[in-house]
Automatic annotation (TrEMBL), chains A, B:
<dbReference type="InterPro" id="IPR009057">
    <property type="entry name" value="Homeodomain-like_sf"/>
</dbReference>
<keyword id="KW-0238">DNA-binding</keyword>
<dbReference type="InterPro" id="IPR023772">
    <property type="entry name" value="DNA-bd_HTH_TetR-type_CS"/>
</dbReference>
<dbReference type="Pfam" id="PF00440">
    <property type="entry name" value="TetR_N"/>
</dbReference>
<dbReference type="InterPro" id="IPR039536">
    <property type="entry name" value="TetR_C_Proteobacteria"/>
</dbReference>
<protein>
    <recommendedName>
        <fullName>HTH tetR-type domain-containing protein</fullName>
    </recommendedName>
</protein>
<feature type="domain" description="HTH tetR-type">
    <location>
        <begin position="14"/>
        <end position="74"/>
    </location>
</feature>
<dbReference type="Pfam" id="PF14246">
    <property type="entry name" value="TetR_C_7"/>
</dbReference>
<feature type="DNA-binding region" description="H-T-H motif">
    <location>
        <begin position="37"/>
        <end position="56"/>
    </location>
</feature>
<dbReference type="InterPro" id="IPR050109">
    <property type="entry name" value="HTH-type_TetR-like_transc_reg"/>
</dbReference>
<dbReference type="InterPro" id="IPR001647">
    <property type="entry name" value="HTH_TetR"/>
</dbReference>
Length: 208, 208
DNA sequence: GCTTAACTACACTGCACGGTGTAGTTTACT
DNA sequence: AGTAAACTACACCGTGCAGTGTAGTTAAGC
């Protein structure tokens, strides 16, 4: 459990804090939280274990901070990709498919890529039984809400027909990101095929 | 790792073996593999830890057997539901939607329900890094292949239009089971809505 | 240069736990 | 009843590891 507030923690150096969180994130994703020792995080971050305890107090708190940071990073990534790929979509229907494909590809190819997202999702799901606040941090629905807003705009200019924008956003995510995550190790051509198939199915389902 | 074959294992009693696997399955799903002790499995199964080691040799082997058993159970469940709900589908398009909804609901409401499937999937995903054979046992693609065969039949009688049957099966699973798993704790009415929305989107995407 | 906070490198503690051995008890079969 | 396999209940061992304390070193600020 997170430390009682009476335990003094140190703010310390931003660079070291960042190194710890990055190292922890990588190890938690590849090894799982339980199988990752704090010693291993310390070694990977290039700091002493004593420092980690001085900064975070205990192991669970490291996980909380990792997930907080990842959720914020994901939202920023989705927001940027949407603004740049979906924002300029014009009234010409033939550009929507290409924009949606680029939107998915862009997110999948960033630091917060498909396998990273999939691993983090799994981590939250596994550990939420013991740290329920993790789920709150992760399942904000902010990315889906943002996407639903764009879809609503597309409906207004006649490109989509929606009954429930948020459901459409969920379906879009299921047809693209989710299936992509299942084949995170696939070659680039296969991954492009998955995205294209998913976007096309979505458009057939939601075109006027 | 699984025990070297020189270690003598005992077949023992089918009832005790079953009790061990059931207890292990429940605990692995709720607590995770790493956080579940063999002592806890023994207590939940009502056998001695010595017996567990006599039957299985080590902890990883328990996990292998649990996943084997679960994958077989899932396939049986999907096969039965498909045979009974999709098998009798006639040429009248209006019955297809209802059949697909019943097919999903039936699987989701069985022992191998949405939350159990989701937990097992997560377990395999987490542990496969250390026991790669787990993934082989789980990702057989047999349920998807079976579903794709039914979809191919529906195409022949004019109910669907497919380019790639297996991709359509993936899309169907993504739009229904996957989204249902995300809201495993939702009330029954919400779960029914998720299934109906997903089936309808699928049909819009794949109807001729 | 001096002071102090930050940090490292170790050692240590207590506990959990995978796995093993063994003696006594129970069960099944002849 | 006798025999042997199956099982239980414990104790034990070695290892890993979360978390803590402490002395020495380093870095930053005045």
């Amino acid at each position: 459990m997170p430390p009682v507030e009476t335990k003094p923690l140190r703010a310390g150096s931003a660079a070291k804090r960042s190194a710890i969180l990055l190292a922890a994130r990588d190890l938690f994703m590849t090894e799982g939280f339980e199988r990752t020792s704090v010693d291993a995080v310390a070694a990977a971050a290039g700091v002493s274990k004593r420092t980690i305890y001085d900064y975070f107090g205990d192991k669970s708190t490291i996980l909380l901070r990792v997930v907080e940071s990842a959720a914020a990073s994901l939202l920023a990534s989705v927001t940027e990709a949407a603004d740049e790929e979906l924002g300029p979509v014009s009234e010409a229907p033939e550009t929507l498919e290409a924009s949606l494909i680029r939107f998915v590809a862009r997110i999948s190819d960033t630091t917060m890529g498909s396998d990273a997202y999939s691993s983090l999702r799994r981590l939250v799901s596994t550990e939420a039984a013991h740290l329920p606040v993790l789920r709150d941090q992760w399942d904000t629905r902010e990315p889906e809400t943002l996407l639903a807003e764009y879809f609503t705009t597309f409906e207004r200019i006649g490109l989509l027909r929606l009954a429930k924008p948020l459901t459409a956003a969920d379906h879009f995510g299921a047809l693209t990101f989710r299936l992509l995550q299942d084949e995170a190790d696939a070659p680039k051509a296969r991954r492009h095929e998955i995205v294209a198939d998913g976007v096309q199915a979505f458009l057939r389902a939601y075109r006027p």
